[in-house]
Amino acid sequence: MVTIMIREANNSDKSPILNFCKNTFSWGDYIQYVWNYWLAEGNLFVIEKKQPVGICHAIFSKNQVWVEGIRINPDNHRQGLASKLVHHVESIAKEKQISFSYMLIDIENSSSLEMAKNLNYKIYETWNFYSILPQITHGHNIEFGQIPHTKKITHYVKSWRWLVLDEKSLIQLYKQNKIIVANNSGDTSIAILTDSEHFANTLIVTLFSGSEKNTLELISYIQNYCAEKKYHKIQILTREKISFTNSIEHKITFNLMRKSLN
């Protein structure tokens, strides 16, 4: 019987892991770009059967663990290896007295959704990923400020991780002018701006759309800001569907999955 072991990744794992991550999606994969970052951060776990056959990465933060980058060698699918990796992360989270586990899954990834369901994860929210190009625009009616108390916002996106928006992170974002608000008429629209830690010249926007007019104000400002700051890419994550501007491209829709660990 082959022994299955889960351990922390090391430098020698990079080549065999990336070898089976080349064609994860129709466009390839991103693991080769984040591997060194994840290895440096720690909590990059490898599952092996004589040799590495799978990985996942975990970020432990305030009262939650974020599980990302689950990859299993196609030759070893349907063996429960992904579930073993998730269980391993959850066990560490429980030792840290963390209450919730989160992961993000493409709504069309039926096998991963089935795995998450079998592990008692529930759909917490559904999010859309849009991309838009930097562009010089004019006449933005926005403010830098705090999130209105009427808006119940629990998370924001940083490097594709949905992190708890606690008082500490809220104050830091506010001081850095990373929270922009449009409140010209109708419901307030809010955007939280963060730089990607893994991809150069990429701005990540967590967008909470109130009204079409206010959201367009924010998008116009963000395009101009990124053009002036020489960003190459703008990635927008939002719960809402944005179909009222032709300049934005819908990429994919995800389910944000959550599990209580109590």
UniProtKB/TrEMBL annotation:
The keyword Magnesium does not apply. The keyword Transmembrane does not apply. CDD domains: NAT_SF. Pfam families: Acetyltransf_1 (PF00583). Signal peptide: none annotated. Residues 4-163 form the N-acetyltransferase domain. Keywords: Transferase. GO terms for molecular function: acyltransferase activity, transferring groups other than amino-acyl groups. PANTHER family: GCN5-RELATED N-ACETYLTRANSFERASE (PTHR43072:SF52), N-ACETYLTRANSFERASE (PTHR43072). This is Acetyltransferase, GNAT family. It comes from Candidatus Nitrosarchaeum limnium BG20. The lineage of its organism: Archaea, Nitrososphaerota, Nitrososphaeria, Nitrosopumilales, Nitrosopumilaceae.
